[in-house]
């Protein structure tokens, strides 16, 4: 999935920039906003138009060609860095393990968590792990860390 995402990401960024930087669409939205028809629109419709105008301006619709190219390159680099950051956080989160070995360490934890933690320990090679005797492995997965 990561490979497919990383391969398609430049195309998505390019497409998004192209739409957001469309001078034709920007001018059409501005014309609508400045027309008599504007007062006939509902509040949600007005908000959509105003958001589209703001997004176009923030996406560099008014930049000259050279600055727009630089802006788009920065957008692409930002998308790549964001993906790398997310992947690093995800990998670190998945790699974290806390192995508890004594009953005292798990005193007060719910039985359902002890079952899950023992099952996790078994899946990681602790063949004799049980909810009653451990060992127990706590991860940063939601069903594990929240009750912990």
What is the mean predicted local confidence, pLDDT? 94
Q: Give the number of domains.
A: 2
Spatial strand sequence of the major β-sheet: 1-2
The biggest beta sheet reads: 2 strands, antiparallel
Instruction: Pick out the low-confidence regions.
Output: none
Number of helices: 6
H/E element sequence:
HHHHEHEH
Topology, number of strands: 2
Helix amount, in percent? 55-70%
Report the portion of residues in β strands.
under 5%
Tell me the Rg in angstroms: 26 Å
Shape: elongated
Please report the distance between the alpha carbons of the first and last residues.
30 Å
Structural class: mainly alpha
Label this structure with key terms.
about 150 residues, mainly alpha, about 65% helix, about 5% strand, elongated
Task: Explain this structure.
The protein is mainly α. The protein has two domains: 2-94, no CATH class; 96-145, no CATH class. The protein is 64% helix and 4% strand. The chain has six helices and two strands, in the order H-H-H-H-E-H-E-H. The chain has a two-stranded antiparallel ribbon. Helix 2 runs antiparallel to helix 3. The longest helix is centred in the middle third of the chain and has 31 residues, at 65-95. The protein is elongated. The protein starts with a helix and ends with a helix.
């Amino acid at each position: 999935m990561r490979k497919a995402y990383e391969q398609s990401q430049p195309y998505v960024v390019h497409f998004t920039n192209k739409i957001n930087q469309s001078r034709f669409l920007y001018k059409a939205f501005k014309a609508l906003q400045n027309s008599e028809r504007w007062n006939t629109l509902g509040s949600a419709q007005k908000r959509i138009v105003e958001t589209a105008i703001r997004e176009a301006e923030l996406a560099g619709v008014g930049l000259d060609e050279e600055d727009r190219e630089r802006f788009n390159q920065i957008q692409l680099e930002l998308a790549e860095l964001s993906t790398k950051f997310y992947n690093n956080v995800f990998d670190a989160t998945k790699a974290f393990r806390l192995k508890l070995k004594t009953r005292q360490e798990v005193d007060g934890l719910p039985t359902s968590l002890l079952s899950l933690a023992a099952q996790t320990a078994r899946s990681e090679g602790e063949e004799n792990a049980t909810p009653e005797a451990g060992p127990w492995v706590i991860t940063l997965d939601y069903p594990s860390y929240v009750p912990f």
